[in-house]
Amino acid sequence: xxxxxxxxxxxxxxxxxxxxxxxxxxxxxxxxxxxxxxxxxxxxxxxxxxxxxxxxxxxxxxxxxxxxxxxxxxxxxxxxxxxxxxxxxxxxxxxxxxxxxxxxxxxxxxxxxxxxxxxxxxxxxxxxxxxxxxxxxxxxxxxxxxxxxxxxxxxxxxxxxxxxxxxxxxxxxxxxxxxxxxxxxxxxxxxxxxxxxxxxxxxxxxxxxxxxxxxxxxxxxxxxxxxxxxxxxxxxxxxxxxxxxxxxxxxxxxxxxxxxxxxxxxxxxxxxxxxxxxxxxxxxxxxxxxxxxxxxxxxxxxxxxxxxxxxxxxxxxxxxxxxxxxxxxxxxxxxxxxxxxxxxxxxxxxxxxxxxxxx
Length: 359
Ligand SMILES: NC(=O)c1ccc[n+]([C@@H]2O[C@H](COP(=O)([O-])OP(=O)(O)OC[C@H]3O[C@@H](n4cnc5c(N)ncnc54)[C@H](O)[C@@H]3O)[C@@H](O)[C@H]2O)c1
Known about the structure:
Blueprint: E1 8-12, E2 19-23, E3 38-43, H1 44-49, H2 51-57, E4 62-65, H3 74-87, E5 95-100, H4 102-114, E6 121-125, H5 128-134, E7 139-144, E8 147-154, E9 159-162, H6 172-189, H7 191-205, H8 209-229, H9 244-253, H10 260-277, H11 283-293, H12 300-305, H13 308-316, E10 327-331, E11 337-341, H14 345-358
Parallel strand pairs: 2-9, 3-4, 3-5, 5-6, 6-9
Antiparallel strand pairs: 1-2, 7-8, 10-11
Helix pairs in contact: 3-4, 5-6, 5-8, 6-7, 6-8, 6-10, 7-8, 9-10, 9-13, 10-11, 10-14
């Protein structure tokens, strides 16, 4: 679908066929889809901030979506999105166009994977997190019965179109949430990557275009390598969950007042401290990793007030657990992550207490 002239950015190999990401503009959907065949699911904030989109969509079918974790649920998809696809008579020759962040992506991808056993969808990611991380990887994740991302499918979009200009309207916390996932993949990769990101983190946080672009491009390339080796998360891809066991639990425990990528930042700090407690990670290495992680600590008050007695039950419900035992991606240093089954709640408790003291 992407021609060479359209600034192809990235190509990802997947079981359903390769899909590409190109750079473009969110209003230029005429270049990719035909009127009469397309159906829009658009984040309400995007419709408000970019009235040109609404104008351009005109009378074409539009579902204005409120992007919240509560709406990223099975109940919402079943009660709202799927009936809309039915009422609009979306078929396998239609294209559903999703414009929004990771939440809009997850809900749209999930519904499209179910309806008629799969209708094509096109994704315009509008947050840093979605542009640097979630847009590739095939996963659609839905919250169910208070467990985060516990339901889902593997169903990539047919294509991704990335418009960097829309990042200018992203709020600071949502921007930092994206930086959280950028830091994570760099820590998964190599000392060289971590060194480069450490040098540039100030500029990235200030949204300086060149440094931000480099961090996004590198993040996608690191993730691409992992997902192409293990699209269905049977082995090596697991390490992308670094910071996620505690992070997901923290998010849920504070009722999603801490955005995903920022909770993952705390999750990485906790994973590192547990790794120290368990003798996997040296103090020097922890400090070295922490120098980068701590640059993106945000919402410290929310984090400090989060109660461990609320966090631990969510950790026990994590989908990566094995045989009822808490499983956490721990680390022996940069680029050396591994899944450890049977992490003791006491170790989590000690680690979180230490991290909170350092905030
Ligand atoms: N499927 C995957 O592989 C995957 C990977 C990582 C994270 N996720 C999921 O992604 C979600 C987080 O995604 P997110 O951070 O993109 O959140 P999001 O989609 O909720 O967007 C965050 C906020 O920013 C607003 N917004 C979106 N684009 C904007 C723009 N350009 N300007 C101003 N405001 C804008 C949204 O309306 C929302 O209020 C989590 O639910 C997480 O679990 C999924």
